[in-house]
Amino acid sequence: MHAAVIQASDAPPVYRDHPDPAPRHGDELVVEVLAAGLHHLTRAKANGSHYSSGGAYPLVPGVDGVVRDEEGNVRYVVLDDTALGTFAERTLIDPRRSVILPGGIDPVRIAAAMNPAMSSWVALRRRVDFHAGQRVLVLGATGNAGRMAVQIAKLFGAAQVIAAGRDTTRLRALTALGADETIAYDRIGQAADVDVVIDYVWGELAAGAMIPMLTARADRTAPLTWIQIGSIAGQTAPIPSAALRSARMRIVGSGIGSVPARDFLAELPELAAAVTAGAIDVRARAVPLAQVAQAWTTESDDRVVLVP
């Protein structure tokens, strides 16, 4: 079979022949890969920069995808740490880490949506006590995961969703997806009275936003939950001590480890159903797996999905 293979952390993937997978125990299935998303997590795990990276090479990247099993079932699957990911014609899965999809689904759309959508979906369902009527600020709302977070917060009944980002053109487009207000980062104080922050940026940008937000809150004793999910602006944030003393704010992280694998898996069916039903707008671009080296380093507004 063919697969994308990475030989070292600083090397791009190479499309080449690769041995066919063989089950190592009775629970594993050999499946045909239909579509696999090129996510930020995929790149980070492959180059060793993500905290969950295994650091073993060579490897076939790909953390999830849409596959077909030997019985003809189409599944969305999340892989455990493995050197044989979904950037291949075939791979190995544990069926317990998958959900069978209904007939007629678009594999490319599902593969594009599930990973970025899962970040905010799981955070609001499993990491915090979110309930309908709360107000939400999304930092980094113009990215793929951020624009889905805007939609998911609304889907879960948020009374107000404020989208924050740098690109004014992309921000304006978010009103059609459910954003009640859009703001640039230098106006973050206008989002002071939210209940939840979904943060995809972190770094100095997030740290710098905290004091203006907290000092502008009408009631500093009202709870504010800051959910740290992504770090596109920096891996570390110099959080002012006053931010933790001057208001009732708590910071929590949501991701692999802080959320048990069983909780991620439990949310897969409902999320897949929402994506399939069109409740979440998806921007996807299919690219042949043979072009993986070019796709790996190309920035795109759409989520790139590799198709063997």
TrEMBL record:
Residues 8-307 form the Enoyl reductase (ER) domain. One of its GO terms (molecular function) is oxidoreductase activity. It comes from the Bacteria. Pfam families: ADH_zinc_N (PF00107). InterPro entries: ADH-like_C, ER, GroES-like_sf, NAD(P)-bd_dom_sf, Zn-ADH-like_protein. Transmembrane segments: none annotated. PANTHER family: SHORT-CHAIN DEHYDROGENASE/REDUCTASE, ZINC-CONTAINING ALCOHOL DEHYDROGENASE. This is Zinc-binding alcohol dehydrogenase family protein. It comes from Nonomuraea montanisoli. The lineage of its organism: Bacteria, Bacillati, Actinomycetota, Actinomycetes, Streptosporangiales.
